[in-house]
What does this fold into?
Amino acid sequence: MTFTYYGHSCFSIDVKGKKLLFDPFISPNELAAAVLIDAIEADYILVSHGHEDHIADCVSIAKRTGATVICNWEIYIWLQKQGVEHIHPMNIGGRKTFDFGTVKCVTAQHSSSLPDGSYGGNPMGFVVSCEKNFYYAGDTALTLDMQLVPQGAPLSFSILPIGDNFTMGYEDAARAAHMMNCHTVIGVHYNTFPYIVIDEAQVKAHFERNGLDLRLPVIGECITI
Ligand code: NI
Ligand code: MN
It folds into this structure.
C-alpha cells in the first residue's frame, strides 16, 4: 500500500486500486503550495470532523472527482447542501464494508463545527480493514477508548496527530501507539500553524527511545507502507 502526504492531516492511501483521500485541506495550507490539487484523484474522501483544516477542499475535490465522501450524519447533511452528490453517512461505532475494505468509525475526543458555523456532530477516527488494518485518529486527545481500536483488527500502522495544542502531542501519540500495540506511526497535524510547530529531531528521538517507528513524510512524498 502507498501513503501520499498532502500536508497537515491530509493524505491519500491506495487500496486495491481505490484511492482513499483523508481530510482534504490543501489550498489554504501555505506549506502545501506545491501540491497540484487538481491532479489529486479520489474514489473516496474520508472526513474525520467538520473543522476547516480537515474539510476545506472536500466539496471541490468531491465534485471534480465524483468521489464518495464518508463522514458523520451532520457533515452528510451539510455536504448535501453544498451540492455534493455521493456521500455515505456513518457514525461512531458503525462499521460498513465498501469495495476496498471495511471502515469502522471510532471515538475521537475533540470538537467539531463546520466552516460556516453549522453543527458538525461528533468528531471521529477511522479504522480501515483491507490488505492491512490501519487507524487514522483524526483530531483527538489520548483516550482509553484507543484500547478498543485494535480489537478484531490488529493494526499494521496508525496515523496520529503529534502537533499538540489542539490534539495529542507526540508523547501522548507514543503512549497511544503502545496502547494499541501498533509500532509504526505516521505523524500528522504538525507544523501547519505556529501553535503546532514541533522539533522533528526531538520527536523522532522520543519515538525511537520508546521502540516505535515514526514516519514523517515530507509534503508531496509517497511512501510504501
Ligand atoms: Ni479539529
Ligand atoms: Mn485539526
Observations:
- DSSP finds five helices and 14 strands in the chain.
